[in-house]
Amino acid sequence: MSKAKLEYIWLDGYKPTANLRSKTKIEEDFSGKLEDCPTWSFDGSSTKQAEGGSSDCLLKPVAIYPDPTRRNGYLVMTEVLNADGTPHESNARATIDDDDNDFWFGFEQEYFIMDKTTQLPLGFPVGGYPGPQGMYYCSVGGKNTHGRDFVEEHADLCIDAGLNFEGINQEVASGQWEFQLFSKGAKKAGDEIWVARYLLDRLTEKYGYYIEYHPKPIKGDWNGSGMHANFSNEILRTCGSKEVYEAICEAFRPVTAEHIAVYGEFNDQRLTGEHETQSIHEFSYGVSDRGASIRIPIITVEKGWKGWLEDRRPASNGDPYKIAARIVKTVKTAEIPVTA
Predict the structure, then answer these.
(1) Which element (helix H / strand E) includes 320?
(2) Per the database record, which ranges form the GS beta-grasp domain (predicted)?
């Protein structure tokens, strides 16, 4: 008889930015399959998801991955349900309208690695600043590169967990990094970002770091952190039409406020029109334009308008479930030209 450790992971009810929570369930002779993960419960009154007099919330397993750091361990991503089995109001995953996995997402998760002792990004001296931006992006060498051992270990954990992990690079500011994940299916894309974040946050416990997801933790002439959302559906992947792409981009214009509302807290500090961003008060799109709200990748154009779009507005602390749900909804409202 063997025993497995199932780490149930969920999002709490804090607003506007949810936090990861998790607890371990021991199962005997566990098969390793999602369908054999039982529904579990937790005290919602301790996570702003229920009142003390009726505190039980349910955890519905939706994705499972091997846990690379625990013997007989699994990472179980879950949705939060009310006691009657309906989706909890904090459950953004349940709002995604992509049951056929028509939508593909590639998220670029930026973040700062913070030293827990100094509470500064790696590379920042106490009481001062490192050299200006310019030499940190994709750098190599101890002068400009900070945190590589940590980032490499996180990448290995994600790959060993079976996530569709696509890359890492140091970003424009000192101590700022990025990883990329791609998934066919909007819900799966959200699952994988949250599990990757969980592995990232858990790894900090060993290093004496913490992760800062705030989109503008260092004020001044320093790049903020985003979570660029690259997305496509069958139409974008196959249409071969500039007019179709423009129609889909235009569908985003009248709902700019609705997108910004779910793209992350404090995003106004990042979307200033500087540091490779468009102003939070404006909407624009353009080919290869990193200062636009939505960038049309040059590769998409070169392949005859068959590819994807990149929404550059989501903040690093955004919920990928909410972001994907809003993008899917908007794309589905686009008025596609009849001649396409």
Answers:
(1) helix 320-333
(2) 4-85
